[in-house]
Specification:
The structure is a homodimer. The first copy, chain A, is mainly alpha-helical. Chain A has 9 helices and no strands. The longest helix of chain A has 24 residues, at 4-27. At the A-B interface, helix 6, helix 7, helix 8 and helix 9 of A face helix 6, helix 7, helix 8 and helix 9 of B.
């Protein structure tokens, strides 16, 4: 049974992850200090190492948390996964992915491999939801998954720069139609 | 007839654009000064306003230059456009797009609208090369183009973070197969 103390510990952890996600999105990983994060979360700075070890541990927790939010949409069979992913990219905190990406591709970036694991987990999670018949002839599942995850990343980038130019709902529909349409057409199940 | 002076002017301009592209990719737009750019280009700093007006004018020239390099690949009918785009993302200077994107999505970014124009020009340029039959039933050309440009942006992001995990050649082939395959299948021209 969870004690009150366990609950408080979990709540502190949650607040620290949320504050770090906001700050990494706003000012990047490098420029964000434990002091900033503790202040935003309203929690003593000394507890951060206790929860996460170091700043990379905290980054890992933030990425895990965001990743789970994306993948949850894909694993809930009652919802349309593409609608949910397009809904996720609308969240202010999703900007985090763009800010951290720029730092991850810098020479000798300490966060590159952490970011690479995020992409790999996205490919793994989304790849499992590609319908069997959706692969065009001669196309491997791996390349197709890179393309699918790439489309989500790049649609997010375009929408974040110019939300008025990108109709996320229509794009989610296009992604769905492309995947399901290809398999339907191949099965002779044309509408 | 171009005089020697015209040629020297063009050459200076070219060197400044190339130096600015490198520096924007390495350290971002905000942190790059005219002094840095002049030093890298080996050209007097006083000539930058003469060529470009201000720093935003120089950014515009850099983005135009990079955009032309992408779209040239699409407009050369002898080459495979997807191979050429995948070749472009391999260039070190293509990192520029990721670095500037992160700055463009910051609150009150001075470069946001310039970056939005780049995306719009990419959609316009690449959109013209979508084969007529490639649109899945019920999918508009606009949403499909956002998806196509998004795939290129997002494949670039994944490759730049972890080149060993992304086979650019296979992904270019998947993109081609997806576009051409969908139209071939619809035409009953199945292999």
């Amino acid at each position: 049974m969870a004690t009150r103390r366990d609950e408080r510990t979990q709540e502190s952890r949650r607040l620290l992850v949320a504050a770090a996600a906001e700050l990494f999105a706003e000012q990047g990983y490098r420029r964000t200090s434990f002091i900033d994060i503790a202040e935003r979360a309203g929690i003593s700075r000394g507890s951060i190492p206790w929860h996460f070890g170091n700043k990379l541990g905290l980054l890992e927790a933030v990425l895990d948390d965001r990743l789970r939010a994306v993948l949850d949409g894909f694993d809930r069979p009652s919802d349309d996964p593409f609608d949910r992913v397009m809904g996720f990219v609308r969240l202010p905190v999703a900007r985090l992915f763009i800010t951290l990406l720029a730092e991850a591709v810098e020479a000798d970036s300490p966060i590159r491999e952490h970011y690479a694991r995020l992409h790999a987990a996205l490919r793994d999670g989304l790849g499992r939801h590609i319908p069997e018949g959706a692969l065009p002839p001669g196309v491997g599942a791996e390349a197709f998954t890179v393309l699918l995850v790439g489309a989500v990343i790049g649609v997010h980038a375009q929408w974040r720069v110019a939300p008025e130019a990108v109709d996320l709902e229509a794009v989610g529909g296009a992604l769905r139609a492309l995947l399901l349409g290809a398999s339907a057409l191949r099965d002779g199940d044309q509408p």
